[in-house]
TrEMBL record:
<keyword id="KW-0472">Membrane</keyword>
<protein>
    <recommendedName>
        <fullName>MICOS complex subunit MIC10</fullName>
    </recommendedName>
</protein>
<dbReference type="InterPro" id="IPR007512">
    <property type="entry name" value="Mic10"/>
</dbReference>
<comment type="similarity">
    <text>Belongs to the MICOS complex subunit Mic10 family.</text>
</comment>
<keyword id="KW-0999">Mitochondrion inner membrane</keyword>
<comment type="function">
    <text>Component of the MICOS complex, a large protein complex of the mitochondrial inner membrane that plays crucial roles in the maintenance of crista junctions, inner membrane architecture, and formation of contact sites to the outer membrane.</text>
</comment>
<keyword id="KW-1133">Transmembrane helix</keyword>
<comment type="subunit">
    <text>Component of the mitochondrial contact site and cristae organizing system (MICOS) complex.</text>
</comment>
<dbReference type="Pfam" id="PF04418">
    <property type="entry name" value="DUF543"/>
</dbReference>
<feature type="transmembrane region" description="Helical">
    <location>
        <begin position="6"/>
        <end position="28"/>
    </location>
</feature>
<keyword id="KW-0812">Transmembrane</keyword>
<keyword id="KW-0496">Mitochondrion</keyword>
Length: 73
């Protein structure tokens, strides 16, 4: 589980950083805020996916239903 979250963090942060650098160079006249913003988005998405991995009941709309059927032997 942890290895998935760490690799996901590295990949999403790297993608966010890359998108931020490209956006900063091409669109925003080499400002630094697009890099920080897109890197933060990558970290946030990775955190949300790890939270869903470790705590599946935290997903909105998910209900845990207890199995109430009794088995007679």
């Amino acid at each position: 589980m942890w290895d998935f979250c760490i690799s996901n963090l590295l990949v999403k942060t790297g993608i966010g950083l890359s998108v931020g650098i490209v956006a900063s160079a091409l669109i925003f006249k080499r400002k630094s805020w697009p890099i920080a913003l897109s890197t933060g988005f990558g970290i946030g998405v990775s955190y949300a996916e790890c939270q869903k991995t470790f705590n599946p009941t935290a997903i909105p709309g998910v209900k845990i239903i207890k199995n109430s059927s009794s088995t007679s032997g």
